[in-house]
Amino acid sequence: MELKFSKVERKGPITIVTLSRPEVYNALHTDAHFELQRVFDDFSADPEQWVAIVTGAGDKAFCAGNDLKWQAAGGKRGWDKGGFAGLTSRFDCDKPIIAAVNGVAMGGGFEIALACDLIIASENATFALPEPRVGLAALAGGLHRLPRQIGLKRAMGMILTARHVSAKEGHELGFVNEVVPQGEALSGALRWAEMITKNSPMSIRASKQTIQKGLGVSLEQAIEEQRDYPAVKAMVASQDYIEGPKAFSEKRPPKWVGK
Q: Entry's Gene3D superfamilies (predicted)?
């Protein structure tokens, strides 16, 4: 697949996706959304790829969100079923996705990060949902994910003021997992990804799916139904389910096959 607005690199079982429109702070338009939909479709379907990292090209921005200049010039706005960047409405991917936020993450850019499972941010990263300042609203998941991730009052404080939040404050609020020095967001995300890949990918997918499905129902229902979740059934039926205890008993590192 020819890529015009993003770059894809694979390091073993880790896929690195770079949003690549640095001339507009990696803001995204319709064509970029559809391209990224295909990129993350490929990642989701590839059994050899276990974890993805998404970051931005250059040293200034992760993603400045929707390309407003494109829109103002009459450019068509829209995206595929996966949502903004192919991620914000993607609810069927059980593989972990990490945001390596290397600068500005505004509007849709922040919504991309919130849709990821982990956020590793450089010290110069800045987060905001500034849509009300231009007559819009953060309808690519930000208005729903932020309150769920940091609590209602804290989220309201960001959303209603449209204020900018530093990486340090993001960590204090709870939506950033780790703050790293400027220029080290990707290396920090790779460190987290490598820790994840030491675990069985079947167990990781079962864990992510169980968390996601369980959050939508009562605790009692979640515990009662979890063994019927597809990823949990796949884990129990997998070779990794046998390999893990066997490797432990033989006092050796497990050899995960992801099936």
A: 2-enoyl-CoA Hydratase, Chain A, domain 1, Lyase 2-enoyl-coa Hydratase, Chain A, domain 2
Domain ranges of the chain: 6-198, 201-250
C-alpha 94 chain-centroid distance: 11
Read off the pLDDT of each residue in 218-233 and give the average, rounded to a whole number.
Answer: 97
Query: Which pTM value belongs to this model?
Result: 0.95
Catalogue the active-site residues.
111, 131
Angle in degrees, 0-180, between the axes of helices 152-159 and 142-150, rounded to the nearest 10: 140
Average pLDDT, the chain: 95
Secondary structure (H, E, C), the chain: CCCCCEEEEEECCEEEEEECCHHHCCCECHHHHHHHHHHHHHHHHCCCCCEEEEEECCCCEEECCECHHHHHCCCCCCCCCCCHHHCCCCCCCCCCEEEEECCEEECHHHHHHHHCCEEEEECCCEEECCHHHHCCCCCCCHHHHHHHHHCHHHHHHHHCCCCCEEHHHHHHHCCCCEEECCCCHHHHHHHHHHHHCCCCHHHHHHHHHHHHHHCCCCHHHHHHHHHHCHHHHHHHCCHHHHHHHHHHHCCCCCCCCCC
Q: Please tell me the CATH code under which domain 6-198 is placed.
A: 3.90.226.10
Cα distance between residue 8 and residue 81, in whole Å: 21
Task: Check pLDDT > 80 for residue 158.
Answer: yes
- Per residue in 3-42, pLDDT (tens digit) is 999 999 999 999 999 999 999 999 999 999 999 999 999 9
* Cβ proximity of 15 and 48 under 8 Å: no
